[in-house]
Specification:
Helix content is about 30%, strand content about 25%. By secondary structure, it is an alpha+beta fold. It folds into 2 domains: about 200 residues, Enolpyruvate transferase domain (UDP-n-acetylglucosamine1-carboxyvinyl-transferase, Chain, Alpha-beta prism), CATH 3.65.10.10; about 200 residues, Alpha-beta prism (UDP-n-acetylglucosamine1-carboxyvinyl-transferase, Chain), CATH 3.65.10.10. The strands form 6 sheets. Strands 21-22-1-23 form a 4-stranded mixed sheet, covered by helices on one side. Strand 9, helix 5 and strand 10 form a beta-alpha-beta unit. The longest helix is centred in the middle third of the chain and has 13 residues. The structure holds uridine-diphosphate-N-acetylglucosamine and phosphoenolpyruvate.
Length: about 425
């Protein structure tokens, strides 16, 4: 059943909230369990649609899977078989491309439908193909399937022309059991890349340098099962920090790794928002209208593109004119049309958004076009006067584990209700007879 969020805005968020496991680490760690041919216990998984879909795909490939309420999954990949890749669910998310690296490492033979994921601009996979081919795989696309086969995988040097999270992780997966050493140059340094490397090492792999731009993977014969806990979600943490500032609230975001949040913390401080760092928490307090800032999205440790959309919303009521440059994905401004309905004053020129701060936003019916656009609209609804209805929230459920429950605990007035409106493309039946 379709659902929507109804938010009565204008309430300052107050209290403490705990962040769940990182989506972008979890969605790589789950396919990586295939490399072990053994039992892995993965703790701190967020109960989000992307995770549930990946667990189901693993099951369809022959793994035995269980998941408890706390987000601990036990995955026995002993029975995973080679696959023709025709698993429809794989088209529903981006991370299904990690099955190629993992299956290639296990069977030297992989196939999976080309990935889906958020429509935020061009999302080519040429660097994945370049890296896997360098290791000796014959990679091609046929009937919508991404297929890779190798006589033998052999470690090589791979230079990434552009920093890519997905390509870095996929090459690490394929290299973990290859002959010899693979060196990834210009690797992504995101916390989730480091988390996947740590998980591979926990299974017996030899990955060094994750978190720097040169990663070395010395292939080993065999990997084994292990117990591993996923790191906290940098983007959920950031969304909550932004929501705290946007509502002029006072929120302690717990279970975070503060250094992962440095780029956002720096921008909040520049806006005049107070941020107090604890060992594994960040307290965000905002008592006055934030000041304008400029933001450029960049690979880690730069400002994350996944937080650009909520940050733009926060700046829509800041004092002065902010400039946002989106360097990673060219179509990541779709939330702006929606916040204009709420009174925001933003102009877009290609990858640059110029945000003239207004006094306040007012509630309106809006639609989530993608995951972080949806999160941004929640922030907008929380800070606006009046009622905001957000439809198409299936995107938000891909990446946030019942975010409304966490917000309600902080004092927000937000509810998830059935959405009776027909889809835009649903056939309409009007009856104009008397
Ligand atoms: C599941 C997952 O982890 N998703 C994240 C991952 O997406 P994803 O792994 O898809 O993003 P990448 O880091 O690969 O993309 C970065 C840039 O590289 C380009 N590129 C990428 C691969 C390629 O083969 N060729 C190429 O040109 C992309 O178009 C983009 O401009 O990192 C993005 C950037 O931090 C985040 O927004 C996503 O939330
Ligand atoms: C873009 C995102 O996800 P995906 O890469 O899975 O589409 C995201 O998490 O913001």
């Amino acid at each position: 059943m379709k659902e929507k969020f109804v938010i009565r805005g204008g309430k300052a968020l107050r209290g403490s909230v705990s962040v769940g496991g990182a989506k972008n680490a979890a969605v790589a760690i789950l396919p990586a369990t295939i490399l072990a041919e053994d039992v892995c216990t993965i703790e701190n998984l967020p109960r989000i649609d992307d995770v549930l879909i990946l667990l189901n795909i693993l099951q369809q490939m022959g793994a035995k899977v269980s998941l408890d309420e706390e987000g601990t999954a036990t995955i026995d990949t002993t029975g995973v078989r080679r696959t023709d890749g025709k698993i429809n669910l794989a088209k529903r998310l981006r991370a299904s491309y990690y099955f190629v690296g993992a299956l290639l490492g296990r069977f030297s033979d992989a196939a999976i439908y080309l990935p889906g994921g958020c429509a935020i601009g061009r999302r080519p996979i040429d660097l994945h193909i370049k890296g896997l081919s360098a290791l000796g795989a014959n990679v091609h696309i046929e009937n919508g399937l991404l297929m890779a086969k190798a006589e033998e995988l052999v470690g090589k040097d791979v230079y990434l022309d552009q920093v890519s999270v997905g390509a870095t992780i996929n090459i690490m997966l394929a290299a973990a059991k290859a002959q010899g050493t693979t060196t990834i140059v210009n690797a992504a340094k995101e916390p989730h890349v480091v988390d996947v490397a740590n998980f591979l090492n926990c299974m017996g792999a030899k990955v060094k340098g994750a978190g720097t731009d040169i990663i070395k993977v010395r292939g080993v014969e065999k990997l084994h099962g292990c117990s591993y806990s996923v790191i906290p979600d940098q983007i959920e943490a950031g969304t909550l920090m932004i929501a705290a500032a946007a509502t002029r609230g006072d929120v302690t975001v717990q279970n975070v790794i503060p250094t992962h949040m440095d780029a956002l913390t720096a921008k909040l401080l520049e806006m005049g928002v107070e941020v107090e760092e604890g060992d594994d928490s960040l307290r965000v307090r905002c008592t006055k209208r934030p000041r304008r800032v400029s933001i450029k999205t960049l690979p880690y440790p730069g400002f994350p593109t996944d937080l650009q959309q909520p940050a733009t919303v926060l700046l829509s009521t800041a004092e002065g004119t902010s400039v946002i440059v989106e360097n990673i994905f060219e179509s990541r401004f779709k939330h702006i049309d929606e916040i204009r309905r709420m009174g925001a004053n933003v102009t877009i020129d290609d990858r640059v958004a110029v945000v003239e701060g207004v006094e306040k936003l007012t509630g309106a019916p809006v639609r989530a076009s993608d995951l972080r656009a949806g999160a941004a609209l929640i922030v907008a609804g929380l800070m606006a006067d009046g009622v905001t209805e957000i439809t198409n929230i299936k995107y938000i459920d891909r990446g946030y584990d019942h975010i409304e429950k966490k917000l309600i605990a902080l004092g927000a007035d937000i509810s998830r209700v059935p959405d009776e409106e027909p889809e835009d493309d649903e056939e309409l039946h009007f009856d104009f007879s008397k």
